[in-house]
């Protein structure tokens, strides 16, 4: 359910609200946008499934995983879900040739980065102290 609520709102509802899913871009931008959205969806769904099946939890801080997840995309990238969300939004910015959606993607990146610094890094610090 969290998959549809949080990323669904961030990745699709807000860009729809900004563009109405209308915009004029060339074929090359639409192809690039579609590839980014598709790649982002693959990474996002796989990462969510990995959290649920391997980590026995969710990405939501209120229902965290019971086990550390370091396989799949997490083996190569620290935050694949954030990157997937950004790819989906940037893909829509390209598809609709929307500067406003591109600005939203930049704001989203800043928000993700701030969350990592202010919450996730602090939580990791406290976990390391307990070990």
Gross morphology is elongated
- Uncertain segments are none
* Total individual domains: 1
**Largest beta-sheet details:** none
Rg for CA atoms? 16 Å
* Beginning-to-end CA distance, first to last residue: 32 Å
Task: Please report the total strand number as a whole number.
Answer: 0
Strand portion: under 5%
Instruction: State the order of secondary-structure elements, H for helix, E for strand.
Output: HHHH
Count of helical stretches:
4
Share of residues in helices = over 70%
Describe the protein's architecture and organization.
The chain has 131 residues and is mainly α. The protein has one domain. Helices cover 71% and strands 0% of the residues. The chain is built from four helices and no strands. The chain has helices at 2-19, 27-53, 80-95, 99-130.
Brief rundown of the structure:
The chain is mostly helical.
Summarize the SSE layout with pairings:
Elements: H1 2-19, H2 27-53, H3 80-95, H4 99-130
Helix pairs in contact: 1-3, 2-3, 3-4
Task: Give the key terms.
mainly alpha, 131 residues
């Amino acid at each position: 359910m969290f998959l549809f609520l949080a990323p669904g709102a961030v990745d699709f509802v807000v860009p729809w609200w900004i563009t109405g899913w209308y915009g004029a871009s060339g074929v090359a931008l639409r192809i690039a946008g579609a590839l980014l959205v598709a790649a982002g969806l693959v990474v996002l769904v796989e990462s969510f499934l990995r959290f649920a099946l391997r980590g026995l939890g969710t990405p939501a801080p209120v229902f965290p995983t019971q086990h550390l997840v370091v396989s799949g995309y997490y083996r190569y990238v620290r935050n694949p879900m954030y990157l997937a969300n950004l790819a989906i939004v940037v893909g829509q910015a390209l598809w609709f040739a929307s500067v406003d959606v591109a600005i939203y993607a930049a704001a989203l990146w800043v928000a993700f980065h701030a969350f990592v610094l202010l919450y996730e890094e602090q939580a990791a610090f406290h976990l390391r102290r307990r070990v």
